[in-house]
Amino acid sequence: PAPLWPFLTNRSVLADGMGPAGPDSITSRVMKVSSAKLADHARSDEGRKQLRYAGVSLVFVPLGQILIQIFAATVFNSGNDTNWTAASIASAAVLTVPNFFANKYWVWKNTSRDGLRTQVVVFWVAAMLGVSLATLLTFLVDMAIDGHGWLEKVAVFFAQLVGFGIVWLARYIILDKWLFKVTHHGDEPDEDDLEMMHGDLPV
């Protein structure tokens, strides 16, 4: 039989993934292709919009968590008991409107004032769904580890992140495919587009 040594040291074989260096070579090529695709997507209109959406969240999520802690330590603190549920709702009530306008004008570049009331209502409903889920998780955490000091605060923080994270993804789909779908590239809609948008919205 032919010796194996030439086969194992053949550079073309190794590069094709059949020798010892094959898996590393394949992984390297896959990573390069994936990085290139991610870079191309980030430069596209859709990619830039998604980055802006993430940027808005990077501002409002920490603000929301800070407000929750402030409300919980002041307004909704009776001394021995902290109402995290009320603090969560109050924080969302304060930030929903500026969050809406940041998404409308900066993320989706939607400068039209047509149907503004409908857009606000739909966005508010989506925000309240997020608050409801986050509040439910907060309530469960609060009941499970009530009175544990900093451990309770950290657990509430992560419960909030999980709840809002789930709705964060769903809200992007609602805003992009439904609420701002006509003008999310910054173009003003014509009469046909406006009629189509209003026909799709139930409010």
In short:
The chain has helices at residues 5-8, 11-15, 22-43, 45-73, 84-107, 116-144, 150-179, 191-200. It is mainly alpha-helical and 203 residues long. Helix 4 (45-73) packs antiparallel against helix 5 and helix 6 (116-144) runs antiparallel to helix 7.
User: How far is the N terminus from the C terminus?
Assistant: 79 Å
Count of β-strands: 0
Low-pLDDT residue intervals, each spanning 5 or more residues: 4-19, 183-189, 197-203
Number of helices: 8
- What is the averaged pLDDT score? 74
Task: Work out the radius of gyration.
Answer: 25 Å
Q: Note the main sheet.
A: none
Q: Could you say which overall geometry the principal axes of the C-alpha atoms support? A: flat
How much of the sequence lies in strands comes to under 5%
Q: Based on helices, strands and strand pairing, what is the structural class?
A: mainly alpha
Helix content: over 70%
Query: Secondary-structure element sequence?
Result: HHHHHHHH
What does this molecule look like?
- This protein is mainly alpha-helical and 203 residues long.
- 75% of the residues lie in helices and 0% in strands.
- The chain contains 8 helices and no strands.
- It has helices at residues 5-8, 11-15, 22-43, 45-73, 84-107, 116-144, 150-179, 191-200.
- The longest helix is centred in the C-terminal third of the chain and has 30 residues, at 150-179.
- It is flat.
- The chain starts with a helix and ends with a helix.
- Residues 4-19, 183-189 and 197-203 have low confidence and may be disordered.
